[in-house]
Design brief:
alpha/beta, 6 helices, 10-stranded mixed sheet
Length: 189
Amino acid sequence: MLTTSVAEAAQCLAQGNVLAYPTEAVWGLGCDPFNEKAFHEILRLKQRPIEKGVILLAGQLSQVEHLLVRLDPEIRHQVIESWSNLSNQDRATTWLLPADEHIPKWIKGHHPKVAVRVTNHPQCIALCNAFNGFIVSTSANPAGLEAARSIQEVNHYFGHQLNYLNGDLGLSQEPSKIIDAITGEIIRA
């Protein structure tokens, strides 16, 4: 399926399918994070080991606020500020946060934390809101290859094995940086 309808794309996710969609800087692969079968399909497509874990993408803070409650107030403020004050050209920030009981174990891989980003990409915001929650977000490429920057590149990698939400990438030149909220360690600069 190729669509420009966010509602159709959200329905695709709800039905347990994998979706390719544009994000802030590169194309992503997504699914319902609570659907283990769909999640394993993403791992199969990417040839990615489950141990690594994936990013959860949210359209608004309320979708992931439950993951912020155990943070020190100063760190919580820093995380929220990084998501709230982005221009369309700024590089997004993904934070490693303490996972709670609502996060499926397969999402985290072999980690006690979960990678989370609240996006400023309008189409991604609309997709998460139409889906009514956060979604899996991992770069649209087989492991070891460059992340796709166009729908044509995604199609070259995966062909008709998945569904597509057509749209434009954001203006960021690089995928999100990843920071451990507890330790401050920069995982991806």
